[in-house]
Amino acid sequence: MALHLHSDLSHCQVDGKLVFLDVRKDHYFRLSEALERRFLAYLRDDCSAADKARLVDAGLLIVGEAPASSEPKYSVSPVRRSAMEQAQFVLRATVLERLDTVRTVTLSQFALKTQPLGYVLSALEVERRRRMVLIPASQQGRDDEAYIKATAAFLAARPYAPIETRCLVDSIALIRFLAKRRLPADLVFAVTGTPFSAHCWVQVGDLALNETLGNTQAHTPIRVV
Q1: Would you give the distance in Å from CA 141 to the centre of its chain?
Q2: At a CB cut-off of 8 Å and minimum separation 6, what does 88 contact?
Q3: pLDDT tens sequence for the chain (225 residues)
Q4: What is the pLDDT of residue 3?
Q5: DSSP string across 52-112
Q6: Pairing of strands 17-22, 9-14
Q7: Judging by DSSP bridges, how do beta strands 61-63 and 3-5 pair with one another?
Q8: DSSP classification of residue 156
Q9: Are 55 and 38 in contact (CB under 8 A)?
Q10: Whole-angstrom Cα distance, residue 33 to residue 22?
Q11: DSSP for residue 17
Q12: What is the pLDDT of residue 179?
C-alpha cells in the first residue's frame, strides 16, 4: 500500500531525537521510543507492514498516493548572512511604512488568534504567489539590498504597533510587508533540542532577514513555508 506523511506534519532530528510539528494543531511533539523506532525504519524504507499500520493508526502516515503539493518543505539554503548584521542595514521608516507595518502586524495577530495556524499559513502562501504573478519575469531576480532596506523599514516601524513582539506574528507580518513590495521570502520554523525551544524567522536564499546569524545557526529547521 502507498503511504505518505500527513501534509500537516513535518519533522527533523535534533540531539538524536525526532521532533514533529503539526501545523493544523499548532503543536510540537515527540514520539514514544517504540513509535520513533518504527518511524525511523519507515524513513529508511525498512519498516514491516505491521509497524506501518501502527504509524497509520498513530496519525503519522496516510494511506494513498500523496498529492504533488502535499510534501512539506523542510529546508532552504543554510543561513550564511543576516540582514540585521549588514553594513547597509539602517533602521529608518517613512510615515507610510509605519502605517503599513502597524496595520500588517495587527492583521497578522488577529488572524493567528481567530484562525487555525494551518489556514493562516495557506493564506500566506496564496498571498505571496498572487503578488509574484504581477512581477514581469525579467524583474524576478533577487535584490538583497531591496530586502535589507525593506526589512530595516519594517523593524524600525514595528515598535509603533501596540502588540507584544513574537517571532511568529512578526515573521508572518514581515512576509506580507515584503510581498506588497514584490519581495517574496520564506517563513522558516526551527527548533532546538535540550532544552526544547521553537522559533521562526524570515529568509531569502542564504540571507536571514529578521534574525541574527548566530540564533539561526543554533536552531534546526523543521518546516519552511
Answers
A1: 22
A2: 145, 148, 149
A3: 578 888 899 999 998 899 999 999 999 999 999 999 999 999 998 888 898 899 998 989 888 766 655 566 766 789 999 999 998 899 999 999 999 999 999 999 999 999 999 999 999 999 998 887 755 554 555 689 999 999 999 999 999 999 999 999 999 999 999 999 999 999 999 999 888 999 999 999 999 999 999 999 999 999 999
A4: 81
A5: HHHHHHTTSEEESPPPTT-SPB---SPP-EEGGGSTT------HHHHHHHHHHHHHHHHHH
A6: antiparallel
A7: antiparallel
A8: H
A9: yes
A10: 19
A11: E
A12: 95
Question: Cα separation of 28 and 6, whole Å?
Answer: 14
pTM of the model: 0.89
Find the farthest-apart pair of alpha carbons in the chain and give their distance in angstroms, rounded: 62
Q: What are phi and psi of 73, to 5 degrees?
A: -90, 130
- Which residue reads 513555508 in cell numbers? 225
Per-residue burial over 64-100, b if 16 or more Cβ lie within 10 Å, else e, is eeeeeeeebeeeeeebeebbbebeebeeebeeebbeb
Which of 104, 178, 174 has the alpha carbon at shortest distance from 143? 178
Q: Give the angle subtended at the CA of 146 by the CAs of 85 and 159, to the nearest 5°.
A: 60
Residue appearing with cell numbers 548566530? 214
Residue recorded with cell 502535499:
70
